[in-house]
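To assess whether ligand presence alters the predicted conformation, the chain was also submitted together with zinc ion. Input:
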Amino acid sequence: MSEGLARPEPRVTPVNEPYFVGAHKGKLMLQQCSSCCKFLFYPRVACPYCFALGTLLWVEASGQGSVESFSFVHRPQHPSFLSEVPIAFAAIRLVEGPTMLSVVRDVNARSIRLGMAVRADFEPINADYSLVIWKPATAHTGAATSSDV
Ligand SMILES: [Zn+2]
């Protein structure tokens, strides 16, 4: 994360607040329609699949996805990101179905691949907000493996 300049804060509304509250607690929250059972992202007031109102529930997602498309940002739109360039910006296909635009950390132009498995991680930008970012799913998670025994 860039030191010095403050990162821009997300625009939190009553509709998307559970997403940002979850992210700050280390949880990837998605809306799921209780009528047609589909997951959706970005947060909305009505289901875009069955058009039902009042059927969207917040649930914790798996945090697993894959890189569907990507590009590297060399000229960010805010100076607080300058120390991070090039930034891998990707469309992540969540295993639940929706696509999320986000940053992938711990990759470079040689290591990122279409279809690469990624997992959600959470990056605090200040005391109140964290952003959902993604990392390669194969990166060491600190969990014990058979080779650690
Ligand atoms: Zn629906």
